[in-house]
């Protein structure tokens, strides 16, 4: 007596495989994309339709334009380094042209992040493209003055100073940073200066020295959540050490704005991000930026504008408070 169940159909190419499992495999094979020599040369199949065009923002034109050329020439003549160049930032045309595109159609204030203490870092964080060495060249003693001269000539109102890590220097480069800030303030007293610093190996004296140099914003990035520190950052950096830097900076000058940043999309959970936010707020950090190494159009300039207004508002409120000086003296 034959079974009343219908026999499964046999797909072309399945040979004598007639079981349900075999048929399922055949159907899956038939539906799978055909692997060709041209596909093999393009890399493994990712599931993305190769006919779908990538979004327009994924491509940036080569940087050009009058403002870009002027900044590039000035930086080259004074032998300055910038994060924009050393980190191979794709937004360099947008920022150096003043907020427009890479072609020079911007109409805002040009922004460049100056990198002091040379172009060679003593640490090797995995997200960074800056070159590394255990024994980088000594800092240029004329760099603080040259930096101030360049920035003053650009006519900017807000400048960001950052640096490579210099574990080879006794104070991690803190005094070099401070000299640059003082030179900037002497040449252009009204300029607002943000310093995005290393952790100075946790040297509290180095942190205090820079915090009291006249800068307006003390920035130090924790980079990622606690669980991913060893994956993302150099082993000499650490979550708790970075928190200690920011806490001590705020304690050195309570009227100074402190700032930190976290990269997203590295495998962290929402809860870990929230915990990092709470940890930063608990030590008085005023500003937190969240970034991602994906979209090439940057909101960094918008962040600088926000901080610039915040600093000036704080100064205005302090000058209008009749009890501010009395409180400080007590």
UniProtKB/TrEMBL annotation:
Gene Ontology BP, a term: protein lipoylation
InterPro entries: Aldolase_TIM, Elp3/MiaA/NifB-like_rSAM, Lipoyl_synth, rSAM, rSAM_sf
Comment on bound cofactor: Binds 2 [4Fe-4S] clusters per subunit. One cluster is coordinated with 3 cysteines and an exchangeable S-adenosyl-L-methionine.
Alphabetical list of Pfam families matching this protein: Radical_SAM (PF04055)
The enzyme's E.C. designation: 2.8.1.8
Binding-site list for [4Fe-4S] cluster 2: 121, 125, 128
Cofactor requirement: [4Fe-4S] cluster
Cross-referenced SUPFAM superfamilies: Radical SAM enzymes
Residues reported in the UniProt entry to bind [4Fe-4S] cluster 1: 84, 89, 95
Keyword Nucleus: no
Domain Radical SAM core, chain residue ranges per copy: 104-329
Keywords from the named record: 4Fe-4S, Iron, Iron-sulfur, Metal-binding, Mitochondrion, S-adenosyl-L-methionine, Transferase
CDD domains: Radical_SAM (cd01335)
Record-level Gene Ontology MF annotations: 4 iron, 4 sulfur cluster binding; lipoate synthase activity; metal ion binding
Gene Ontology CC: one annotated term: chloroplast
UniProt subcellular location: Mitochondrion; Plastid, Chloroplast
Biological or metabolic pathway of the protein: Protein modification; protein lipoylation via endogenous pathway; protein N(6)-(lipoyl)lysine from octanoyl-[acyl-carrier-protein]: step 2/2
Catalysis performed (reactions): [[Fe-S] cluster scaffold protein carrying a second [4Fe-4S](2+) cluster] + N(6)-octanoyl-L-lysyl-[protein] + 2 oxidized [2Fe-2S]-[ferredoxin] + 2 S-adenosyl-L-methionine + 4 H(+) = [[Fe-S] cluster scaffold protein] + N(6)-[(R)-dihydrolipoyl]-L-lysyl-[protein] + 4 Fe(3+) + 2 hydrogen sulfide + 2 5'-deoxyadenosine + 2 L-methionine + 2 reduced [2Fe-2S]-[ferredoxin]
Gene3D superfamilies given in the database record: Aldolase class I (3.20.20.70)
UniProt key word Transport: no
Family: Belongs to the radical SAM superfamily. Lipoyl synthase family.
Name under which the protein is recorded: Lipoyl synthase, mitochondrial
Gene source species: Zea mays
Origin organism lineage: Eukaryota, Viridiplantae, Streptophyta, Embryophyta, Tracheophyta
């Amino acid at each position: 007596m034959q079974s009343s169940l219908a026999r499964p159909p046999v797909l072309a190419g399945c040979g004598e495989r007639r079981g349900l499992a075999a048929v399922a495999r055949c159907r899956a094979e038939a539906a799978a994309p055909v692997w060709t020599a041209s596909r093999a040369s393009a890399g493994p199949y990712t599931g993305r339709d190769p006919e779908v065009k990538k979004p327009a923002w994924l491509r940036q034109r080569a940087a050009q334009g009058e403002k870009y050329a002027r900044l590039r020439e000035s930086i080259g003549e004074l032998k300055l380094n910038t994060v924009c160049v050393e980190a191979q930032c794709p937004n360099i045309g947008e920022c150096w042209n003043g907020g427009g595109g890479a072609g020079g159609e911007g109409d805002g204030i040009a922004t460049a992040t100056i990198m002091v203490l040379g172009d060679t870092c003593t640490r090797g964080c995995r997200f960074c493209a800056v070159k590394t060495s255990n024994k980088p060249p000594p800092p240029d003693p004329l760099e603080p003055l040259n930096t101030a001269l360049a920035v003053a000539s650009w006519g900017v109102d807000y400048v960001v100073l950052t640096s490579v890590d210099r574990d080879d220097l006794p104070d991690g480069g803190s005094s070099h940073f401070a000299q640059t800030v003082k030179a900037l303030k002497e040449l252009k007293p009204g300029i607002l200066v943000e310093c995005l610093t290393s952790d100075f190996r946790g040297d509290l004296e180095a942190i205090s020295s820079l915090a009291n140099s006249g800068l307006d914003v003390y920035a130090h990035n924790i980079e990622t959540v606690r669980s991913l520190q060893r994956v993302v950052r150099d082993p000499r950096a650490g979550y708790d050490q970075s928190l200690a830097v920011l806490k001590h900076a705020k304690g050195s000058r309570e009227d100074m704005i402190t700032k930190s940043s976290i990269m997203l999309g590295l495998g962290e959970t929402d809860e870990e991000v929230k915990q990092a936010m709470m940890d930063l707020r608990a030590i008085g950090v005023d500003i937190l930026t969240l970034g991602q190494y994906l979209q090439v159009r940057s909101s960094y300039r918008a962040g600088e504008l926000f901080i610039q207004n915040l600093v000036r508002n704080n100064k205005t409120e302090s000058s209008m408070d009749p009890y501010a000086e009395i409180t400080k003296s007590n």
